[in-house]
Design goal:
This is YjbR protein. This protein has 129 residues and is an alpha+beta fold. It has one domain: Aspartate Aminotransferase, domain 1. The protein is 31% helix and 26% strand. Strands 1-2-3-4-6-5 form a 6-stranded antiparallel β-sheet. It is globular.
């Protein structure tokens, strides 16, 4: 369900695996990124709707959820959406650096919501890795 040589997946891996104790596990045919619990998944879809092969699923900060959903790049993903997750379509994003800064911030927020406190202390202030 994914191409290991996909440059978008490569960038997601680079960002996600830079977090302390982060690991990658393929689950349900997709790369997932974890620190004990899952904080990101590569690729998703809308239930009964389109697939977004080049996308990242994450847990947004509750205060940012509505603003993110107002942006057409974001979607409510099948299966994990009811648990508060969102997806970001990254189609064509491989060469746009501003997108990767945003992805890094979103994954930082997602990671901080699931990582143990001792690991979060290793990160320092939000947005800093």
């Amino acid at each position: 369900m994914f191409d290991d040589a996909d440059p978008v997946l490569g960038r997601i891996r680079e960002i996600a695996l830079a977090f302390p104790e982060a690991t990658e596990v393929v689950a349900h045919g997709r790369p997932t990124f974890r620190c004990g619990k899952m904080f990101a998944t590569y690729g998703g879809m809308i239930k009964g709707g389109p697939r977004f092969e080049q996308s990242v699923l994450f847990i947004p900060d509750a205060g940012e959820r509505d603003a993110l959903l107002a942006d057409p790049r974001f979607f409510h993903p099948a299966y994990v959406g009811p648990s508060g997750w969102l997806g970001m379509d990254l189609t064509g994003a491989a060469t746009r650096d501003s997108v990767w800064t945003e992805v890094g911030e979103l994954l930082d927020a997602s990671f901080r919501q699931i990582a143990p406190a001792r690991v979060i202390r290793l990160l320092g202030e939000p947005g800093r890795r």
